[in-house]
Structures are given as structure tokens and as C-alpha cells.
Amino acid sequence: MRCSTSVGANHRAACRGKSTADVVAKLGIVEEEADESVYWMELLVDSGVLPAERVAALKKEADELIAMTVASIKTLRSRRQ
Question: What would the DSSP string read from start to end of 1-70?
Fold first, then answer.
């Protein structure tokens, strides 16, 4: 829960970025934090704490957020060139 709330907070900060470079940097943090959330979910499943079915929807959503964030970063970088 803790690492996942960082995703939202950093996305909000990216929305208020002062420049394209600032937004890209903040979205990079969003990507890292979302990936870390997936890691913790995988760890919970692999250690037997939670069944895979219990985290499947959350993991799917996190993977989708990562994909959207990476696409946004690529778009912003291509616009700068």
C-alpha cells in the first residue's frame, strides 16, 4: 500500500511539472514506483502470503499504468527532439 500511494503522488507532481524535462523526470519516478509495487505484489504471491488471484487485478492495473507512463515519457522525449 505504501509504495502504491507514491505512484499517485508522483503522478500528481508530474502534472504540475515546470518544464518538459521536469515532467519526464517525475514520470520516471512514477514508472519506478509502479514497478516496485508490482515487485512487492509478486513477492507476496511467491512467499505464499497471498494467492495470485487476490492480487491479479491490482498487478494488471499496475502493469497498465507502467505501460501508459512509459508511452507518455517516450512521447514527451520525441517532442523535445
Answer: -HHHHHHHHHHHHHHT-SSHHHHHHHHHHHHHHHHHHHHHHHHHHHTTSS-HHHHHHHHHHHHHHHHHHH
